[in-house]
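Appendix B: a complete holo record

For completeness, this appendix reproduces one full record from the ligand-bound portion of the collection. The bound molecule is zinc ion. The inputs are the chain sequence and the ligand SMILES; the output is the full three-dimensional arrangement of the complex, encoded as C-alpha coordinates. No fields have been trimmed.
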Amino acid sequence: MSEPVIVVRPGAGTPDLPLVYDSPHSGFEFPEDMKPAIPFEILRQNEDAFVDALFGHVPVLGAVLVKATFPRTYIDPNRSTADVQVDAVDGDWPDPVNNSIKTKRGAGLIYTKIHGEESIYDRKLTVDEVRHRIDAYWRPYHAALQAELDRLHAAHGGVWHIDCHSMPAKGNIHTEDGPVERADFILGDRDGTTCDGAFTETARAFLAGRGYDVAVNVTMKGVELVRKHGRPAENRHSLQIEVNRRLYMHEKAISKNDLYPETAQVIADMNAVMADFVRQRRAV
Ligand SMILES: [Zn+2]
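The structure of the chain with zinc ion bound, as generated:
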Protein backbone atom coordinates (compact mmCIF):
# COMPACT_ATOMS: atom_id res chain seq x y z
CA MET A 1 0.00 0.00 0.00
CA SER A 2 1.12 3.52 -0.76
CA GLU A 3 1.07 6.34 1.73
CA PRO A 4 -2.47 7.79 1.99
CA VAL A 5 -1.35 11.01 0.33
CA ILE A 6 1.31 11.74 -2.27
CA VAL A 7 2.78 15.23 -2.73
CA VAL A 8 4.56 16.00 -6.01
CA ARG A 9 6.60 19.22 -5.99
CA PRO A 10 8.34 20.97 -8.89
CA GLY A 11 11.68 19.46 -9.86
CA ALA A 12 15.03 21.11 -9.15
CA GLY A 13 15.50 24.08 -11.45
CA THR A 14 11.77 24.78 -11.84
CA PRO A 15 10.86 28.02 -10.04
CA ASP A 16 8.29 27.53 -7.28
CA LEU A 17 4.89 29.13 -7.78
CA PRO A 18 2.43 29.57 -4.90
CA LEU A 19 -0.01 27.29 -6.72
CA VAL A 20 -1.29 23.97 -5.34
CA TYR A 21 -3.59 21.48 -7.05
CA ASP A 22 -5.22 18.63 -5.19
CA SER A 23 -6.97 15.49 -6.40
CA PRO A 24 -8.85 14.01 -3.42
CA HIS A 25 -11.02 11.48 -5.30
CA SER A 26 -8.80 9.73 -7.84
CA GLY A 27 -7.38 7.08 -5.45
CA PHE A 28 -8.32 3.43 -5.74
CA GLU A 29 -6.13 1.53 -3.26
CA PHE A 30 -8.80 -0.05 -1.11
CA PRO A 31 -7.62 -0.56 2.50
CA GLU A 32 -8.06 -4.17 3.63
CA ASP A 33 -10.22 -3.19 6.58
CA MET A 34 -12.89 -1.57 4.36
CA LYS A 35 -14.71 -4.92 3.88
CA PRO A 36 -17.50 -3.69 1.59
CA ALA A 37 -20.43 -5.94 0.67
CA ILE A 38 -20.28 -4.99 -3.03
CA PRO A 39 -17.54 -5.42 -5.65
CA PHE A 40 -14.73 -2.89 -5.99
CA GLU A 41 -15.72 -2.33 -9.65
CA ILE A 42 -19.01 -0.85 -8.44
CA LEU A 43 -17.32 1.26 -5.75
CA ARG A 44 -15.01 2.63 -8.41
CA GLN A 45 -17.97 4.25 -10.19
CA ASN A 46 -17.66 6.99 -7.55
CA GLU A 47 -13.98 7.62 -8.26
CA ASP A 48 -12.80 10.73 -10.13
CA ALA A 49 -10.79 8.40 -12.33
CA PHE A 50 -7.69 9.77 -14.11
CA VAL A 51 -8.02 13.25 -12.56
CA ASP A 52 -4.54 12.91 -11.00
CA ALA A 53 -3.24 12.07 -14.49
CA LEU A 54 -5.12 14.92 -16.21
CA PHE A 55 -3.46 17.33 -13.77
CA GLY A 56 -0.24 15.32 -13.42
CA HIS A 57 1.84 17.82 -15.42
CA VAL A 58 1.40 20.75 -13.00
CA PRO A 59 4.79 20.38 -11.23
CA VAL A 60 6.41 21.24 -14.59
CA LEU A 61 4.64 24.61 -14.34
CA GLY A 62 6.05 25.19 -10.85
CA ALA A 63 2.94 24.01 -8.99
CA VAL A 64 2.44 21.30 -6.38
CA LEU A 65 0.10 18.33 -6.84
CA VAL A 66 -1.38 16.66 -3.74
CA LYS A 67 -3.29 13.43 -4.38
CA ALA A 68 -5.03 10.78 -2.31
CA THR A 69 -4.25 7.11 -2.94
CA PHE A 70 -7.25 5.81 -0.96
CA PRO A 71 -10.74 5.78 -2.50
CA ARG A 72 -13.25 8.45 -1.58
CA THR A 73 -15.77 5.74 -0.73
CA TYR A 74 -13.52 4.67 2.18
CA ILE A 75 -13.42 8.21 3.56
CA ASP A 76 -13.99 11.44 1.66
CA PRO A 77 -11.47 14.26 2.23
CA ASN A 78 -13.99 16.64 0.70
CA ARG A 79 -16.37 16.30 3.64
CA SER A 80 -16.13 17.67 7.16
CA THR A 81 -15.25 15.18 9.91
CA ALA A 82 -18.60 16.14 11.48
CA ASP A 83 -20.45 14.78 8.43
CA VAL A 84 -20.84 11.31 9.94
CA GLN A 85 -24.03 9.40 9.14
CA VAL A 86 -24.79 8.32 12.70
CA ASP A 87 -27.30 5.58 11.78
CA ALA A 88 -24.50 3.81 9.87
CA VAL A 89 -22.38 3.62 13.03
CA ASP A 90 -22.78 0.87 15.61
CA GLY A 91 -23.63 2.48 18.94
CA ASP A 92 -23.42 6.18 19.79
CA TRP A 93 -21.08 8.38 17.73
CA PRO A 94 -19.31 10.40 20.43
CA ASP A 95 -18.02 13.35 18.39
CA PRO A 96 -19.89 16.44 17.06
CA VAL A 97 -22.21 15.88 14.09
CA ASN A 98 -23.14 18.37 11.40
CA ASN A 99 -24.58 16.58 8.37
CA SER A 100 -24.60 17.98 4.84
CA ILE A 101 -27.36 17.53 2.30
CA LYS A 102 -25.20 14.80 0.71
CA THR A 103 -25.31 12.58 3.79
CA LYS A 104 -28.98 11.77 3.21
CA ARG A 105 -28.05 9.95 -0.01
CA GLY A 106 -25.18 8.08 1.63
CA ALA A 107 -22.47 10.44 0.40
CA GLY A 108 -21.19 11.97 3.63
CA LEU A 109 -17.76 11.58 5.21
CA ILE A 110 -18.04 7.79 4.95
CA TYR A 111 -20.02 6.71 1.91
CA THR A 112 -22.77 4.18 2.60
CA LYS A 113 -24.40 4.09 -0.85
CA ILE A 114 -23.38 4.19 -4.50
CA HIS A 115 -25.41 6.58 -6.68
CA GLY A 116 -27.75 7.06 -3.72
CA GLU A 117 -29.06 3.51 -4.06
CA GLU A 118 -26.80 0.51 -3.69
CA SER A 119 -25.64 -0.10 -0.09
CA ILE A 120 -21.88 -0.45 0.32
CA TYR A 121 -22.00 -2.37 3.62
CA ASP A 122 -24.08 -5.16 5.08
CA ARG A 123 -23.09 -4.05 8.58
CA LYS A 124 -22.70 -0.94 10.67
CA LEU A 125 -19.21 0.50 11.13
CA THR A 126 -17.75 0.65 14.61
CA VAL A 127 -16.77 3.94 16.22
CA ASP A 128 -13.13 2.76 16.12
CA GLU A 129 -13.33 2.04 12.38
CA VAL A 130 -14.63 5.52 11.61
CA ARG A 131 -12.07 7.17 13.88
CA HIS A 132 -9.28 5.15 12.28
CA ARG A 133 -10.31 6.34 8.82
CA ILE A 134 -10.31 9.95 10.03
CA ASP A 135 -6.97 9.72 11.86
CA ALA A 136 -5.03 7.57 9.37
CA TYR A 137 -6.42 8.97 6.06
CA TRP A 138 -8.49 12.16 6.32
CA ARG A 139 -6.15 14.00 8.70
CA PRO A 140 -2.91 13.15 6.84
CA TYR A 141 -4.52 14.32 3.58
CA HIS A 142 -5.60 17.65 5.07
CA ALA A 143 -2.29 18.06 6.89
CA ALA A 144 -0.29 17.52 3.69
CA LEU A 145 -2.39 20.00 1.73
CA GLN A 146 -2.33 22.54 4.58
CA ALA A 147 1.46 22.26 4.88
CA GLU A 148 1.98 23.04 1.18
CA LEU A 149 -0.46 25.96 1.28
CA ASP A 150 1.14 27.39 4.45
CA ARG A 151 4.71 26.96 3.14
CA LEU A 152 3.96 28.75 -0.12
CA HIS A 153 1.82 31.44 1.53
CA ALA A 154 4.70 32.24 3.90
CA ALA A 155 7.20 32.42 1.03
CA HIS A 156 5.07 34.38 -1.46
CA GLY A 157 2.53 36.36 0.58
CA GLY A 158 -0.40 34.54 -1.04
CA VAL A 159 -1.39 31.11 -2.28
CA TRP A 160 -3.77 29.79 -4.95
CA HIS A 161 -5.36 26.34 -4.73
CA ILE A 162 -7.28 24.40 -7.37
CA ASP A 163 -9.29 21.44 -6.06
CA CYS A 164 -9.68 19.01 -8.98
CA HIS A 165 -12.60 16.66 -9.61
CA SER A 166 -14.61 14.97 -12.30
CA MET A 167 -18.34 14.38 -12.49
CA PRO A 168 -20.62 11.87 -14.20
CA ALA A 169 -22.01 13.17 -17.49
CA LYS A 170 -25.52 13.13 -16.00
CA GLY A 171 -26.94 13.62 -12.54
CA ASN A 172 -29.54 11.19 -11.17
CA ILE A 173 -32.72 11.43 -9.14
CA HIS A 174 -30.68 11.59 -5.93
CA THR A 175 -28.32 14.41 -6.96
CA GLU A 176 -29.10 18.08 -6.47
CA ASP A 177 -29.39 18.71 -10.22
CA GLY A 178 -31.52 15.65 -11.05
CA PRO A 179 -31.16 13.39 -14.12
CA VAL A 180 -29.90 16.05 -16.53
CA GLU A 181 -26.86 16.36 -18.82
CA ARG A 182 -24.19 18.42 -17.11
CA ALA A 183 -21.99 21.22 -18.45
CA ASP A 184 -18.51 20.34 -19.78
CA PHE A 185 -16.89 22.01 -16.79
CA ILE A 186 -18.31 23.37 -13.53
CA LEU A 187 -16.26 25.86 -11.53
CA GLY A 188 -17.10 26.44 -7.87
CA ASP A 189 -15.98 29.13 -5.45
CA ARG A 190 -18.99 28.88 -3.14
CA ASP A 191 -20.64 31.92 -4.70
CA GLY A 192 -17.50 34.00 -4.75
CA THR A 193 -16.49 33.40 -1.14
CA THR A 194 -13.43 31.11 -1.48
CA CYS A 195 -11.28 32.98 -4.02
CA ASP A 196 -10.72 36.22 -5.86
CA GLY A 197 -13.39 36.36 -8.58
CA ALA A 198 -10.69 37.09 -11.15
CA PHE A 199 -9.17 33.64 -10.53
CA THR A 200 -12.49 31.90 -11.31
CA GLU A 201 -13.09 34.17 -14.29
CA THR A 202 -9.64 33.41 -15.75
CA ALA A 203 -10.44 29.68 -15.82
CA ARG A 204 -13.98 30.25 -17.09
CA ALA A 205 -12.93 32.58 -19.88
CA PHE A 206 -10.15 30.24 -21.00
CA LEU A 207 -12.42 27.18 -21.21
CA ALA A 208 -15.31 29.10 -22.78
CA GLY A 209 -12.85 30.51 -25.32
CA ARG A 210 -11.99 26.94 -26.32
CA GLY A 211 -15.67 26.33 -27.04
CA TYR A 212 -16.68 24.50 -23.84
CA ASP A 213 -19.92 24.87 -21.96
CA VAL A 214 -18.79 26.17 -18.54
CA ALA A 215 -21.06 26.62 -15.52
CA VAL A 216 -20.05 28.54 -12.40
CA ASN A 217 -21.49 27.82 -8.94
CA VAL A 218 -24.28 25.74 -10.40
CA THR A 219 -24.98 22.54 -8.38
CA MET A 220 -21.29 21.97 -7.60
CA LYS A 221 -20.26 25.10 -5.77
CA GLY A 222 -17.36 23.56 -3.89
CA VAL A 223 -17.45 21.57 -0.66
CA GLU A 224 -15.10 21.08 2.32
CA LEU A 225 -11.69 21.54 0.69
CA VAL A 226 -12.34 24.96 -0.84
CA ARG A 227 -14.46 25.97 2.15
CA LYS A 228 -11.64 25.16 4.55
CA HIS A 229 -8.71 26.53 2.57
CA GLY A 230 -10.20 29.49 0.70
CA ARG A 231 -9.88 32.74 2.66
CA PRO A 232 -9.46 35.54 0.10
CA ALA A 233 -9.08 38.18 2.84
CA GLU A 234 -5.84 36.39 3.84
CA ASN A 235 -4.79 36.09 0.19
CA ARG A 236 -5.60 32.36 0.21
CA HIS A 237 -7.66 31.44 -2.83
CA SER A 238 -9.39 28.12 -3.48
CA LEU A 239 -11.29 27.16 -6.61
CA GLN A 240 -13.02 23.85 -7.35
CA ILE A 241 -13.07 22.47 -10.89
CA GLU A 242 -15.26 19.61 -12.08
CA VAL A 243 -14.43 18.03 -15.45
CA ASN A 244 -17.29 16.19 -17.16
CA ARG A 245 -16.26 12.53 -17.50
CA ARG A 246 -17.69 12.32 -21.03
CA LEU A 247 -14.77 14.54 -22.07
CA TYR A 248 -12.19 11.86 -21.27
CA MET A 249 -13.48 8.45 -20.16
CA HIS A 250 -15.91 5.58 -20.62
CA GLU A 251 -17.72 5.82 -17.29
CA LYS A 252 -18.77 2.18 -16.89
CA ALA A 253 -15.50 0.64 -18.08
CA ILE A 254 -13.31 3.24 -16.28
CA SER A 255 -11.11 3.54 -19.35
CA LYS A 256 -9.93 6.54 -21.36
CA ASN A 257 -12.03 7.46 -24.40
CA ASP A 258 -10.99 9.01 -27.72
CA LEU A 259 -11.38 12.55 -26.35
CA TYR A 260 -8.83 12.02 -23.57
CA PRO A 261 -5.75 13.43 -25.39
CA GLU A 262 -7.60 16.55 -26.54
CA THR A 263 -9.08 17.18 -23.07
CA ALA A 264 -5.72 16.59 -21.37
CA GLN A 265 -4.16 19.20 -23.68
CA VAL A 266 -6.89 21.75 -22.97
CA ILE A 267 -6.44 21.25 -19.21
CA ALA A 268 -2.66 21.65 -19.61
CA ASP A 269 -3.19 24.87 -21.58
CA MET A 270 -5.62 26.16 -18.94
CA ASN A 271 -3.13 25.40 -16.17
CA ALA A 272 -0.42 27.35 -17.98
CA VAL A 273 -2.80 30.33 -18.00
CA MET A 274 -3.59 29.83 -14.30
CA ALA A 275 0.15 29.70 -13.55
CA ASP A 276 0.62 33.02 -15.40
CA PHE A 277 -2.19 34.51 -13.31
CA VAL A 278 -0.46 33.43 -10.10
CA ARG A 279 2.95 34.64 -11.32
CA GLN A 280 1.48 38.12 -11.82
CA ARG A 281 -0.46 38.23 -8.54
CA ARG A 282 2.06 36.88 -6.04
CA ALA A 283 3.72 39.44 -3.83
CA VAL A 284 7.21 37.91 -4.12
ZN1 LIG B 1 -14.57 14.61 -6.74
